[in-house]
Amino acid sequence: MAKASDPTEALPLGGVIGVLGGGQLGRMLSVAASRLGLRCHIFEPGQDPPAGHVAHQVTTADYGDSSALVSFAKSVDVITYEFENVPADALDELESIAPIRPGRNALATSQDRIVEKQFLADLGLGVAPFAPVDDLSSLEQAIATIGTPAILKTRRFGYDGKGQVRISKDSDLDAALSSVAHAPAVLEGMIPFDSEISVIAARSTTGEVACFDPGQNIHIDGILATTTVPAPISDSVRTEALKAASQILEALDYVGVLGVELFVSGDDLLVNEIAPRVHNSGHWTQNGCVVDQFEQHIRAVAGWPLGNPARHSDVVMENLIGVEIDDVAALTTEAGVGIHVYGKAETKPGRKMGHINRLQR
User: How far apart are CA 256 and CA 276, in angstroms?
Assistant: First the structure.
């Protein structure tokens, strides 16, 4: 069997891709791999993960379980992940046995908001003003430099609006720090913008790059509600967004799919954040493209050529949040709607339970 440790070789049919994390992204990666004749082995601490319903194999163990990590790594050809916050010690254990794609550099960059912002700024890409915050004194200094309104965010582990609070000139700063548990943080200036877009881009082991069309994102309560493709942006903004995503891929020597979120203000772009994995705002590709983001990621990490990212339909992706999953029965009667249910055991407010893709006529 060709091993992924040799970057010139593609995994053969039947090859095994290890996936760290068993949530909905791992689930959809497993489905995509199976269509290509490849298999996924999921490593997930939680019982009965959504990915386990469709994957070839599941290891249920904590990321601190050295023997389980070693056994997992020895059973796969290459390792990827569905979320950014994999413990560094676990990666040390795994990387000594099997290659990890995307590489550690991408994880380290995206896991810390300060490191991420500085990386993007060093590439010459536009970012919002930012400053590190470790305590009340540094928060006051950051506000004096950046001004208000601003957003205080934890440097690590924030998602879907969690781990952040808005700062105005009248904010109680002690309360703001308490709301992020006094964790190391970053203050980001709030820049007026017309819209938020994202680019889902991929890079192969040979350096081939392919980008899907930018989509426009709408958030409600910090959670992505819809992504509309094509985004209502000018050709020049579209070109610059794709160039920015490609530049980031190259700078990280990246292999796999990357999500890049950007703010649009007129003809100017600011990069908000990057996600070194398949991304919620790329779910529209499942019904809008022949090769979706999940297959593209599997192709990349398996050493296969990338697929054509061309869009054949306009799409609006809508997340099904919390009890909205109860609408699935009614949605099955609608024409032009692709339904994707995640198989989560418990419905909770604010929890992503599935999504639909509405093809636009």
Answer: 8
Number of domains the chain is built from: 3
Task: Answer whether residue 46 is part of any domain.
Answer: yes
List the pLDDT tens digit at each of the 361 positions of the chain. 344 555 568 999 999 999 999 999 999 999 999 999 999 999 999 999 999 999 999 999 999 999 999 999 999 999 999 998 888 889 999 999 999 999 999 999 999 999 999 999 999 999 999 999 999 999 989 999 999 899 999 988 766 556 789 998 888 898 889 988 889 999 999 988 999 999 999 999 999 999 999 999 999 988 999 999 999 999 999 999 999 999 999 999 999 999 999 999 988 999 999 999 999 999 999 999 999 999 999 999 999 999 999 999 999 999 999 999 999 999 999 999 999 999 999 999 999 999 999 999 7
For residue 321, being part of any structural domain is answered with yes
325 and 244 assigned to the same domain: yes
- Between helices 88-95 and 66-74, what is the axis angle to 10°? 40
Among the listed residues 203, 214, 265, 218, the one whose alpha carbon sits nearest the alpha carbon of residue 242:
214
CATH number at residue 60: 3.40.50.20
Give the total residue count for the chain.
361
- Read off the DSSP letter of residue 334: S
Residue 58 Cα distances to 3, 29, 239, angstroms: 21, 14, 41
Same domain? 56 vs 30: yes
User: What is the DSSP track for 41-106?
Assistant: EEEESSSS-GGGGTSSEEEE--TT-HHHHHHHHHT-SEEEESSS---HHHHHHHHTTS-BSS-HHH
Does the global pTM surpass 0.90?
Answer: yes
**Helices and strands, counts by H and E, the chain:** 11, 17
In a domain, 161, yes or no: yes
Q: Which domain holds residue 265?
A: 195-360
Q: Are residues 203 and 315 in the same domain?
A: yes
- 137 domain-assigned: yes
Distance between CA atoms of residues 20 and 18, nearest Å: 7
**Is 296 found in the same domain as 210?**
yes
Please give the Cα distance from 326 to 20 (Å, whole number). 29
| Structure tokens belonging to residue 331 | 């949605």
Assign residue 176 the CATH number of its domain.
Answer: 3.30.1490.20
